[in-house]
């Protein structure tokens, strides 16, 4: 695998892991406060974007699950590629 592609996959894992960590912290706040609109206003200010429509908690959980699965898939793919390179290197 070319080095830039490998670097890209590593960065995807780092970003995915950070987002999952952040989501875990944010869901704790969401569940304890029950004020999704106030939370969305804060997030819009944090990320410097316009506030969109308020999404229900279930939609947020679905997004977090999707991110978790995507990150796990990327980690597994990178692990398989690394194991393949190590195996090839040992056989040569």
Strand and helix layout:
Layout: H1 3-33, H2 36-47, H3 57-91
Task: Summarize the structure in words.
With 92 residues, the chain is mainly alpha-helical. 85% of the residues lie in helices and 0% in strands. It has helices at residues 3-33, 36-47, 57-91. Helix 1 packs antiparallel against helix 3 (57-91). The longest helix has 35 residues, at 57-91. It is elongated and about 60 Å long. The two termini are 17 Å apart.
Quick overview of this protein structure:
With 92 residues, the protein is an all-alpha fold. It has helices at 3-33, 36-47, 57-91. The protein is 85% helix and 0% strand.
Helical/strand content category: mainly alpha
Quantity of strands, as a count? 0
Strand content: under 5%
Please compute the radius of gyration using only Cα atoms: 18 Å
Keywords:
92 residues, mainly alpha, 3 helices, elongated
